[in-house]
Amino acid sequence: MTAAPRPSPEECKVLPAGALRDRFAVVTGAGSGIGRAVTLRLVELGASVMGVGRRAERLAETAALAGHRFTYRALDIRHEPPDFLAELAELDLLVNNAGGQFIAPAAEISRRGFDAVLDLNLTAQAALLQAARPGLAARGGRVVNLSLSAPDRGIPGLVHSAAARAGIAALTRSLARQWPAIKLFCLAPGTVLTAGVGEELPPEELAGIVERTPLGRDTSLDEVAEWVAALGCGIADAVSGALIEVDGGSGLVAAAALAG
Ligand SMILES: CCCCCCCCC/C=C/C(=O)SCCNC(=O)CCNC(=O)[C@H](O)C(C)(C)COP(=O)(O)OP(=O)(O)OC[C@H]1O[C@@H](n2cnc3c(N)ncnc32)[C@H](O)[C@@H]1OP(=O)(O)O
Ligand SMILES: NC(=O)C1=CN([C@@H]2O[C@H](COP(=O)(O)OP(=O)(O)OC[C@H]3O[C@@H](n4cnc5c(N)ncnc54)[C@H](OP(=O)(O)O)[C@@H]3O)[C@@H](O)[C@H]2O)C=CC1
């Protein structure tokens, strides 16, 4: 199968200049991969961004690229209380991007391993949402939770992460009902060829997963960044609670078939 050509970075930039002027966003995991790309696009569109992550040196690299409208806090969302969010009187956009897991057969995942992945991808993110609620509600704010596509269909090798991501999708829908002043979304980007995913799977396995998606393609960083920015804009005003899969159609295919 011949895949459709990917849009160029410039073709992905569909939002007008200044679309996020005067907006204030918090992006977790802003020191690498998707979080950095999202941060740079939000800043380019006029927003001010506070980035969060454990490694200050990675956040400082993002700061050097983003310029003066980017500040950062080096902290661990699993082990530190989300006071930095509770202190914000006003917040337009929270991008819950920090996350991840390890790939292992279910039988080899210990209780501590399961807890660590549930904590990072569900419980810690729920705590961030609770802390951010007043600031978000004050501004009619939005939340984008990064997720995996079709977590409810099962993902062999990622049972802990699939459980957490199905949980965050349910949390997103439930909060969208309970907090009508805030719009919440899950964005599932399929396979994005970041250094982070490269540490989880060797290149040949990743290439196979990408090839077996219905569209035969990965999702670019520029596409993910533009989708997140769009969810922070007026165009997303009539949407809440949705899981949006920007995944080359991989959510349509059982994960076991993708893994080969
Ligand atoms: C296939 C189809 C794909 C199909 C599709 C695949 C597409 C994938 C798309 C997703 C892409 C991404 O997410 S990209 C993001 C990539 N980056 C990451 O995922 C990195 C994130 N990882 C982390 O932050 C951490 O490692 C995290 C998982 C939270 C664990 O944090 P901690 O530091 O607290 O944990 P540790 O102290 O190291 O370990 C806690 C327990 O976990 C266990 N543990 C840790 N690594 C383990 C491992 N590889 N195998 C077993 N068990 C492990 C340890 O043994 C401990 O248990 P005991 O031994 O009992 O003490
Ligand atoms: N790449 C892909 O194909 C896909 C990725 N995703 C999801 O998108 C998100 C970003 O992935 P990607 O950019 O590829 O991978 P990265 O590994 O580059 O991103 C993870 C980010 O989260 C931060 N982070 C991890 N743990 C913590 C913590 N405890 N406290 C604070 N920050 C933390 C990391 O920074 P630091 O280590 O400095 O703390 C890092 O910046 C993840 O949630 C991932 O699961 C979803 C589907 C596909």
UniProtKB/TrEMBL annotation:
It is an enzyme of class 1 (oxidoreductase). SUPFAM superfamilies: NAD(P)-binding Rossmann-fold domains. It comes from the Bacteria. Gene3D superfamilies: NAD(P)-binding Rossmann-like Domain. Coiled coil: none annotated. It catalyses: (2E)-tetradecenoyl-CoA + NADPH + H(+) = tetradecanoyl-CoA + NADP(+); a (2E)-enoyl-CoA + NADPH + H(+) = a 2,3-saturated acyl-CoA + NADP(+); (2E)-octenoyl-CoA + NADPH + H(+) = octanoyl-CoA + NADP(+); (2E)-decenoyl-CoA + NADPH + H(+) = decanoyl-CoA + NADP(+). Pathway: Lipid metabolism. It is found in: Peroxisome. Pfam families: adh_short_C2. Keywords: Fatty acid biosynthesis, Fatty acid metabolism, Lipid biosynthesis, Lipid metabolism, NADP, Oxidoreductase, Peroxisome, Phosphoprotein. Its EC number is 1.3.1.38. Participates in chain elongation of fatty acids. Catalyzes the reduction of trans-2-enoyl-CoAs of varying chain lengths from 6:1 to 16:1, having maximum activity with 10:1 CoA. Has no 2,4-dienoyl-CoA reductase activity. Interacts with PEX5, probably required to target it into peroxisomes. This is Peroxisomal trans-2-enoyl-CoA reductase. It comes from Amycolatopsis acididurans. The lineage of its organism: Bacteria, Bacillati, Actinomycetota, Actinomycetes, Pseudonocardiales.
